[in-house]
TrEMBL record:
Coiled coil: none annotated. This is Unannotated protein. PANTHER family: DNA UTILIZATION PROTEIN YHGH. It comes from freshwater metagenome. Residues 39-126 form the Phosphoribosyltransferase domain. Belongs to the ComF/GntX family.
Length: 140
């Protein structure tokens, strides 16, 4: 993110919008790592966190799904749960822990756009190698 801000010094980021973690995932991991990442970014760059996204339906754990299954799993699953920013917040930055196919980020962008909120980009902690062999699992 620091490189982005150095490259684009006039970039106006209104807020950080984290992708919500599923409660089951937080229980399994023992904590919400995305919350830690987002709070760290907020503190370092003095950008407020606005956790306005939520799930409109139950979604499966993405880790065992192939690309197509991930897209179908997340289709219309994210919604803006707090509409007080609708039409007002321009230039929010999505924050996610891992991007594999981009399905989650696109679902989040779609939900924000429908609420009149413009996402200008995303920051992720990790980028996975593209899924291969259609199974979503590594071939080893």
């Amino acid at each position: 993110m620091q490189k982005l801000l150095l490259r684009e010094p006039n970039l106006q980021i209104f807020a950080l919008v984290p992708i919500p973690s599923r409660p089951q995932a937080v229980r399994t991991r023992g904590r919400d790592f995305l919350q830690v990442i987002t709070q760290s970014l907020s503190a370092k760059f003095h950008i407020p966190i606005i956790p306005i996204l939520g799930y409109s339906k139950k979604v499966k754990d993405q880790s065992g799904l192939n690309s197509e299954e991930r897209w179908n799993n997340l289709n219309d699953s994210l919604v803006v749960k707090d509409r007080t920013l609708a039409g007002k917040a321009q230039g929010v930055l999505l924050v996610d822990d891992l991007v594999t196919t981009g399905a989650t980020l696109l679902a989040a962008e779609k939900a924000l756009n429908q609420a009149g909120i413009r996402a200008i980009g995303a920051v992720t902690a990790c980028v996975a190698q593209p899924l291969r062999y259609g199974s979503g699992r590594a071939p080893f």
